[in-house]
Amino acid sequence: MNLTEMTWADVDSLSRDTPVVIPIAACEQHGLHMPLFTDSLLLEEVIRRIQSKPVAEKILFAPLQWFGNSHHHMDMPGTLSASPRLYLDLLKNLVECFLVHGFVRFVFINGHGGNTTPSQQALFELRQQYRDRKDLLLLALTYWDSASPNETGADYIQNRMGHAGEWETSMMLCIRPELVKGDVKEVPEVSFGTGGAPGYRGWTMTDCSEPGHIGTPAAATAEKGEALFDCFTGGVENYLEKVVSWNGEKWNL
């Protein structure tokens, strides 16, 4: 069920246990070979595929939020970003709109790494704000964390998402190949590196990648992209089934 296609009376007729899915992504630089809207386009495709599954009949889908937290990419023109606190409050306000209308189950489906911490913090703050509401289910899931492509037997060079690397480039070649610039076989690898591991290091993209990508775009193919979409769609679908089936009380889904 798409919120944007419904009347307010349609929404009012829904059970308030209907999970509300809020897709969140970004508009930011993706190297010299990938479009700025990569995160939003890829998440949009994951959501589109989820909506063809039976679980979608039990879920209310909010419109995709393309304005994300991307300040670490601001050195590259075209990146659009909300500051972390502004973005965090925007996410909280989105959930609170639905809370006013009586809904109690929420899932941010995320398609951009920079949104991970703000979305989790938004839900953490909401839980403290509504600490007496035992009926609330406040969740965030980054779609590529929902399943492991490397466990499917496919021959991937990368073992994690990266940025405009093998995985994202493959997915874009699958759905919008005309937006991929030049011959990806000629795009050099940029190592993931170790940064401040095992601790955390503050960073901007230019600290670790001058062209703006991380990973191995040269290994990308449209066939890998289809396999990745299939894998991630299945992972998100399984997660949402658990959200629908939650009994309203237990800690674990």
Compile the SSE list and pairings.
Blueprint: H1 8-12, E1 20-24, H2 38-50, E2 60-61, H3 84-100, E3 105-110, H4 116-129, E4 137-142, H5 166-175, H6 205-208, H7 222-245
Parallel strand pairs: 1-2, 1-3, 3-4
Helix pairs in contact: 2-5, 2-7, 3-4, 5-7
List keywords for this structure.
253 residues, 4-stranded parallel β-sheet, 34% helix
Walk me through this protein's architecture.
34% of the residues lie in helices and 8% in strands. It contains 7 helices and 4 strands; from the N terminus they run H-E-H-E-H-E-H-E-H-H-H. The chain has a 4-stranded parallel sheet, sandwiched between helices. The protein has 253 residues and is α/β, with parallel strands linked by helices. The model has no long low-confidence stretch (mean pLDDT 96).
In short:
34% of the residues lie in helices and 8% in strands. The chain is built from seven helices and four strands; from the N terminus they run αβαβαβαβααα.
Number of separate structural domains: 1
> How would the global form be characterised?
globular
The oligomeric state of the chains shown is single chain
Counted beta strands: 4
Rg on CA atoms, Å? 19 Å
Name the beta content range: 5-15%
Major beta sheet summary: 4 strands, parallel
CATH topology: Rossmann fold
Order of helices and strands: HEHEHEHEHHH
